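STRUCTURE:
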């Protein structure tokens, strides 16, 4: 895999101290990587890419790497009980450990961020094999989550040194997922300012949108959200914090079951959300449903769109408009038994926002699920 893209200049034209190519990969720590890989292939259409395990010299853990277009997921499980991966799974369940970001210079990324106060997770590490060299370095972010800086311009192997090509016979087809649009972190009470400050001062991100509890509240619960973006806009991290409501908010439920702060959802982009969601539903992915009344005044609220609203209603796809265009989105139910991580499928047609007009309908749908779990 060769990254040829160069990080674009940021909007203001000034030089980023942390230029990013985008999301390199996302690593999950899971209880059973073999079964998780099967689920993401079968249900979401990811393709087998690479493997590392005892057969390749990795004695303590196994990782399966799967890919769909530019999205690369790594599913890692420990082979023994007493280690950091097993502890992570014990505390958080199956969860995102690493949001890895492509960089031109991993050493510089680590130096720039740690000099600005980031806590080091991994000092510069060079991995080599016959295909070249990859340089890695990492820093801690909210909870037990980390950012890994990946410098892979001088590597043409399948994923990273230590991995071999994974070519099983079972290869379900893709579903049209293209790239990571954004990754959302849930942080604790009063954690917002700290983590917005972290992304601003340590990573050079900007706060491009903010929502307060007036925007995101229902009869029962509320949350606040701020969207952080890097200079070229390739990496966007919305941060959610719970706000006081009559009952327990969805962010509080997450924090309780996750055991602290962590990644709440990963939004993945498609160019044809109707086709993608049809495939995902057929393959067993479960989505949150809004009441049919959501679609009654949609045409009036949104104006003309290219999609057939009856089809959107049948599939449960939501629509929102901003000054630049519109977007279509839908949210899965949590993809594990704890009510923690879920996915968003998003198609942008000009809009660069995050579906503010859907928050109320969506959060009421989440609360119906929360109530069924006895947590509202
Ligand atoms: Fe989202």
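SEQUENCE:
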């Amino acid at each position: 895999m060769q990254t040829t893209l160069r990080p674009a200049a940021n909007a203001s034209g000034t030089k980023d101290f942390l230029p990013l190519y985008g999301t390199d990969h996302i690593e999950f720590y899971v209880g059973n990587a073999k079964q998780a890989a099967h689920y993401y292939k079968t249900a979401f259409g990811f393709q087998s890419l690479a493997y590392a395990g005892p057969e390749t010299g990795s004695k303590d853990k196994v990782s399966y790497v799967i890919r769909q277009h530019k999205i690369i997921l790594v599913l890692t499980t420990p082979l023994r009980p007493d280690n950091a991966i097993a502890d992570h799974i014990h505390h958080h369940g199956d969860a995102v450990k690493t949001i890895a970001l492509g960089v031109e210079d991993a050493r510089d990324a680590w130096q720039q961020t740690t000099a600005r106060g980031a806590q080091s997770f991994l000092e510069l590490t060079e991995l080599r094999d016959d295909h070249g060299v990859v340089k890695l370095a990492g820093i801690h972010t909210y909870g037990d989550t980390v950012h890994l800086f990946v410098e892979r311009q001088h590597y043409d192997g399948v994923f990273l040194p230590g991995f071999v090509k994974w070519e099983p016979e079972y290869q379900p087809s893709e579903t049209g997922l293209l790239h990571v649009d954004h990754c959302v972190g849930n942080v604790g009470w009063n954690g917002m300012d700290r983590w917005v400050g972290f992304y601003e001062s340590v990573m050079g991100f900007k706060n491009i949108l903010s929502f307060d509890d007036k925007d995101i509240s229902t009869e029962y619960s509320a949350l606040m959200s701020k969207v952080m973006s890097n200079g070229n806009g390739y990496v966007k991290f919305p941060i959610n914090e719970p706000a006081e409501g009559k009952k327990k908010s969805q962010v509080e439920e997450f924090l309780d079951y996750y055991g602290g702060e962590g990644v709440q959802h990963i939004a993945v982009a498609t160019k044809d959300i109707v086709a993608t969601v049809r495939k995902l539903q057929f393959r067993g992915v479960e989505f949150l449903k809004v009441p049919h009344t959501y679609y009654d005044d949609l045409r009036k609220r949104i104006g003309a769109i290219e999609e057939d609203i009856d089809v959107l209603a049948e599939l449960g796809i939501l629509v929102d408009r901003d000054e630049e265009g519109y977007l279509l989105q839908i949210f899965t139910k949590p993809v594990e038994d704890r009510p923690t991580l879920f996915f968003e499928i998003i198609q942008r047609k000009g809009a660069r926002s995050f579906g503010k007009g859907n928050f109320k309908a969506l959060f009421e749908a989440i609360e119906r699920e929360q109530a069924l779990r006895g947590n509202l």
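REMARK: The mean pLDDT is 93.
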